[in-house]
């Protein structure tokens, strides 16, 4: 098979060394989703300025929206931006919630350095079978593979689940050894989407499940999905300038910071970036109704998203300064 783009030619890294470095140094690699150029810029500029490694995440829906030819070019541009800033942060391009082996093969062919196969909605044996097949295929191209065990409630792109099924610690060892995957997403109380938890509740992670999983597969990279905090400042700005959002709260930063000091090597954040970006755009529309230059309103969205992620890198991921910092 001739690959359209080899991720190494694009300057990208897979996640193997990233996760090893993260686990050895007690931090987690931020995995931020992007849907357009400005979001990519916000993510890579923020991470380069902070000296944090980053995983640029792209869902199948985002890939369809941007176009499969566009995504690898944006990822290559991200690497060039970081290097032009004088930063040596590693950057991965990761398929978030890969729905099928066909999707994974196509992404590898188009320069993705890391993929997720999501068989969490299948029974244990079928999840193992599809995850093993994905790992065997991806490893031929030195692409790293993430699988998921357990089910997160909430909505993300085409992934819908009504209830949590917490990861069973007694299953992880068999799952990892039989599939050969490189990292494992687990369900310990996080949730997809913006409307995670009702105000007045106190979202807590099941740290005891995480601890037990660590003892079963010591040193193995663990991934947390659905880990946005749903910052109320952005919710308030969106509402102030005409937006409609149901009241919701996310996972407290303190809960996540505790997890990053353990085996959690990667934390996925999507909703927070969307909220920050949307708040920036709505702010311009609300305060300058005559503005029709996309650079002005998209630029404000980018700025809000970047600044928020910089604080999150420092306060939650603990990844600041893991690599050489860059300057704009």
UniProtKB/TrEMBL annotation:
Residues annotated as binding dihydroxyacetone phosphate are 193, 226-228, 268-271
Which cofactor does this sequence's record say it needs?
Zn(2+)
Annotated binding of Zn(2+) 2, by residue? 118, 148
Question: Could you tell me what the cofactor note in this record states?
Answer: Binds 2 Zn(2+) ions per subunit. One is catalytic and the other provides a structural contribution.
Q: Which UniProt keywords apply?
A: Metal-binding, Zinc
Superkingdom of origin organism: Bacteria
GO biological process, alphabetically ordered: carbohydrate metabolic process
Question: Which annotated residues bind Zn(2+) 1?
Answer: 97, 192, 225
Q: Name one GO molecular function term.
A: zinc ion binding
**Active-site residues, Swiss-Prot/TrEMBL:** 96
Q: What is this protein called?
A: Fructose-bisphosphate aldolase
Question: Highest lineage ranks of the organism?
Answer: Bacteria, Fusobacteriati, Fusobacteriota, Fusobacteriia, Fusobacteriales
Identify the coding gene: fbaA
């Amino acid at each position: 098979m001739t690959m359209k783009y080899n991720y190494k030619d694009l300057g990208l890294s897979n996640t193997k060394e990233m996760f090893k470095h993260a686990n050895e140094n007690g931090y987690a690699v931020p995995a931020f989703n992007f849907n357009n150029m400005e979001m990519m810029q916000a993510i890579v500029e923020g991470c380069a300025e902070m000296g944090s490694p980053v995983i640029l995440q792209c869902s199948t829906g985002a890939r369809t929206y941007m176009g499969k030819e566009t995504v690898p070019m944006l990822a290559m541009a991200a690497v060039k931006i970081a290097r032009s800033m004088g930063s040596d942060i590693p950057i991965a391009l990761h398929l978030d919630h890969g729905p099928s082996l066909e999707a994974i093969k196509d992404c590898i062919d188009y320069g993705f350095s890391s993929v997720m196969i999501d068989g969490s909605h299948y029974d244990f044996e079928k999840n193992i079978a599809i995850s093993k097949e994905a790992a065997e295929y991806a490893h031929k191209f030195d692409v790293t593979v993430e699988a998921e065990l357990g089910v997160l409630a909430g909505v993300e792109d085409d992934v819908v689940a009504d209830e949590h099924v917490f990861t069973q610690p007694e299953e992880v060892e068999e799952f990892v050894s039989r599939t050969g995957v490189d990292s494992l997403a687990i369900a310990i109380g996080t949730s997809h989407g913006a409307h995670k938890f009702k105000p007045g509740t106190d979202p807590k992670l099941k740290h005891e499940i995480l601890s037990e999983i660590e003892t079963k597969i010591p040193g193995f990279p663990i991934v947390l999905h659905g880990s946005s905090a749903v910052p109320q400042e952005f919710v308030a700005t969106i509402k102030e300038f005409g937006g409609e959002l149901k009241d919701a709260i996310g996972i407290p930063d303190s809960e996540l910071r505790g997890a990053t000091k353990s085996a959690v090597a990667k934390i996925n954040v999507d909703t927070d970036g969307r909220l920050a970006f949307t708040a920036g755009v709505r702010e311009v529309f609300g305060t300058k109704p005559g503005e029709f230059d996309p650079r002005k309103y998209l630029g404000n969205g980018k700025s809000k998203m970047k600044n928020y992620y910089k604080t999150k890198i420092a306060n939650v991921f603990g990844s600041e300064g893991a690599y050489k910092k860059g300057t704009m």
